[in-house]
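Q: Could you fold this chain for me?
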Amino acid sequence: MDSLGSFRFQDRVEAGKELGKALSKYRGSSSTLVLALPRGGVPVGFEVARFLDVEFDILVVRKLGLPVSPEYAMGAICGEGARLLNEQLVKRLGVTAEEISQVEKRERAELARRESLYRGGRPGPLMENRKVLIVDDGLATGFTMRVAIMAVREANPAEVIVAVPVSARDSYERLQEFSDQVISLSVPEEFDCVGQFYQDFSPVSDEEVLQIMHRL
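A: Sure. Below is the predicted structure, expressed as structure tokens.
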């Protein structure tokens, strides 16, 4: 059962270990796959997969940030071809089709770079008829997670479970519609950003992701 309280994690490693415990019913299941969203979700997802003793991999997703405020998502894209746009937000703020195209072009280039770097030509995991746990370090708007769910659904999994250490309440509730289950250790009433729930929320580098991938 999800805890709806609010607390802080030391770092992503500790968050992953705690999240793994909450997912213990999946432990040792060969039909279970943990997919982490780079970069911040990778240390969390790796600890979850290690605790559960199940297969681990990544799913590269990129946020489409607003031209005037790149940190705020107007949509998201995934390496599997999925794309999601917040049409209401785009219309309300008057974001043009050309601006959206420019942002998407830039983010698709970065997405392709990460896919190539992290995978090194290795094919993605099989997802058909499997229980797929999509892990990130937290949910704010939930847009990147939604596009990740869309991409995973295309592979015909048995179940799609969203698993995060912390989530904004509206995203937690909204994602229930798109996934089979949403598991979050904390769903605080007051939520500004994911980082406020971590003592150490340092950016995860490409090098850190590669080190984790090389441990597989």
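A (continued): The chain has two domains: 12-60+126-213, 63-119.
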